[in-house]
TrEMBL record:
Species: Homo sapiens
Keywords per UniProt: Cell membrane, Glycoprotein, GPI-anchor, Lipoprotein, Membrane, Signal
Listed GO CC annotations: plasma membrane; side of membrane
Signal peptide boundaries: none
Pfam families registered for this protein in UniProt: UPAR_LY6 (PF00021)
Coiled-coil region list: none
Domain annotation UPAR/Ly6: ranges: 89-126
InterPro entries named in the record: LY6_UPA_recep-like
Name the UniProt record assigns to this protein: LY6/PLAUR domain containing 5
Broad class of where this protein is predominantly found: membrane
Annotated compartments: Cell membrane
Topology in the lipid bilayer: Lipid-anchor; GPI-anchor
Length: 127
């Protein structure tokens, strides 16, 4: 898929947010565009968070410079799945949505938790 090119008055940015939503079931959001923030971004990874998460926000100042994060290969594996899988027995619903009803039970998928994941997470945020 070809990304559209746009003209920015200042800098460009790229951001990735990835959440581990269960056994081999990450949810990843990518956003790219213009911004007025600092040209140096931040990288954070927290495997102990619930759910485990990874985020990158990177600003840059040259034309089409926000093309570093193009594939999932650039992300760490948040759900280190043992082989054979060691499931915890917990099951949760997983979803991501723009509107509140996007995560209704009928629109969510069920995921199996593994290893020491024994609780479901419900929350919201902005990117």
């Amino acid at each position: 898929m070809k990304l559209p090119s746009i003209s920015c008055p200042h800098e460009c940015f790229e951001a990735i947010l990835s959440l581990d939503t269960g056994y081999r079931a990450p949810v990843t959001l990518v956003r790219k565009g213009c911004w007025t923030g600092p040209p140096a971004g931040q990288t954070q990874s927290n495997a102990d968070a619930l759910p485990p998460d990874y985020s990158v926000v990177r600003g840059c100042t040259t034309d089409k410079c926000n093309a570093h994060l193009m594939t999932h290969d650039a992300l760490p594996n948040l759900s280190q799945a043992p082989d054979p899988p060691t499931l915890s027995g917990a099951e949760c619903y997983a979803c991501i949505g723009v509107h509140q009803d996007d995560c209704a039970i009928g629109r969510s998928r069920r995921v199996q938790c593994h290893q020491d994941q024994t609780a479901c997470f419900q929350g919201n945020g902005r990117m």
